[in-house]
Amino acid sequence: MEPIRTTGLEKYLSVVGGYENEFAKWLSRVKKILKRYRDDTRGQSGNETAKFNILWSNVQTLIPAVYSKLPKADVSRRFGDSDPVSRVAGMLLERALDFEIEHYPDFRNAMRHCVEDRFLGGRGVAWARYEPHVRTQEMPDDGLEITNTIEDGESAEMQMPEEIEYECAVVDYVHWRDFGHSQARTWDEVTCVWRWVYMGYDALVERFGEEKAKKIPLDQGPEPLNAYNESKKSQNRAKICELWDKETLKVYWFSKSVPDFIDVREDPLGLEGFFPCPKPLYATTTSDNLIPVPDFTLYQDQAQELDILSDRIDGLVKSLRVRGVYDASQPALQRLLTEGDNNSLIPVDKWLAFGEKGGLKGSIDLLPLDTLANALLNCYRAREDIKSQIYEITGISDIIRGTSFASETATAQQIKGQYAGLRLRSMQEDVALFASDLIRLKAQIICQLFQPQTILQYAAAQQMSPADQQLIPQALQLLADKPLRNFRIEVASDSLVQIDEAQNKQDRLEFVQAYGGFLEK
């Protein structure tokens, strides 16, 4: 019997159900793409055909081209006024962000998985949250002060004050199956977002309390990618939905197995955009809906032709063997190809009769290999043509892949690299914007929820100049008041990829020459 739902919960269950119906086809498509990327279909149901995994090659080429290094936050004053307090505040925030990004692995892992999801499924999602680690203060040595505060039936542990040991602004990677949003045409129209979290009993007790944790069944687990791993699916967790509604400015926690909300809270982070996640890192979308189109979908027909040709080539290569027939009355001919070595002769009985039959040409006939060799060469040419079509669709030119023709001039290669970089530059800007939005969320959490001493520790304020240290109290007050209004936080796209050392040296040399000429004049 279905549990009776409350009116508010029914509303959000309907929103979640509408998303699942709308994105069901996309979820099924992403599963197939991931299986092809991992080559999981090989060996199943006797499928041992040769393949050319162009999907893996393209993804492994594009990911380092758009993201290969941790981003570096650039915090600057929104307006260029001569304000030493704002300068010190910007230094504190930038240092704290650098410590968070470099010290904790959560941001690094989230960015890597999101970029990978963007090139496979077409959507990468990350989620920011505040995580304080609280500890109980130690009891004084004499114990007199704590003993006096204990009342009847109360333990000393309940009376012990708590303090924050350390705190961090965590960025969680959200799996492409565990994220959802209200149905909308564009991201600006989205009114609520949610993510599914799998929690064990201890985590439920810590988050919701023991009384509520006992009412939540532990009958869920992350869904495996492959159907044949269904038996290995863990069933010892609770699937909890964390939904953020921008219209009510509240956060709801619920489960499909519980007839009421588990928890409801007012805006816990106080972010400017309310949502704890930035706009997802999308591949191809249109203004009609937010269902992404994976890149592989746009060239899957060519990839299938590539697999067919690779299988044909594999068969032709295996067929390129010396085969034929020979006169059974001369068994020595069989030894000609198996035992014949350099400067060795095979004896033949009845030589005169063997010569009258035409000798070796009249006693043995080999299968012609010219037809097979020509077919193999044509298959190789056709495969290269299809690869060129795929690279044209995806925008991966031969310059990006690191190959070129020796006959091409340096100017021709430079022109090809500039035109090939147009689409690549757009992808890099999308990743940089996604990283910037994540860092802005971290900055707001740091400024609004962190203790002042935590910010000073992360920023190594004791290493600043004495003049700047005198301005720290005023700078902390400025950070606590709408940091995004006073500061500009950005990530340069060039800081996410490996720098071209040759181009970097050339730019520096040109600058030195130009500056030297300016000084002479």
Key words describing this protein structure:
single chain; 521 residues; alpha+beta; five-stranded antiparallel beta sheet; three-stranded antiparallel beta sheet; 12 strands; 14% strand; elongated
Quick overview:
The chain has helices spanning 7-22, 24-38, 54-66, 84-103, 106-120, 144-148, 156-159, 201-208, 210-213, 300-319, 335-338, 351-356, 359-363, 370-394, 410-449, 452-458, 466-469, 472-479, 483-486, 501-520; strands at 74-77, 123-136, 162-174, 179-181, 192-199, 238-245, 250-254, 263-266, 281-282, 324-326, 364-366, 487-490. With 521 residues, it is of the alpha+beta class.
Morphology call: elongated
Low-confidence stretches: 143-157
Task: Report the biggest beta sheet as strand number plus sense, adding barrel if it closes.
Answer: 5 strands, antiparallel
Strand runs, count:
12
Report the structural category.
alpha+beta
Strand content: 5-15%
Walk me through what this model shows.
This protein has 521 residues and is an alpha+beta fold. Helices cover 47% and strands 14% of the residues. The protein has helices at 7-22, 24-38, 54-66, 84-103, 106-120, 144-148, 156-159, 201-208, 210-213, 300-319, 335-338, 351-356, 359-363, 370-394, 410-449, 452-458, 466-469, 472-479, 483-486, 501-520; strands at 74-77, 123-136, 162-174, 179-181, 192-199, 238-245, 250-254, 263-266, 281-282, 324-326, 364-366, 487-490. The strands form 4 sheets. A 5-stranded antiparallel beta sheet has the order 4-5-6-7-8. It has a 3-stranded antiparallel beta sheet with strand order 3-2-9. Strands 1-12 form a two-stranded antiparallel sheet. Helix 4 packs across helix 16 (452-458). It is elongated and about 110 Å long. Residues 143-157 have low confidence and may be disordered.
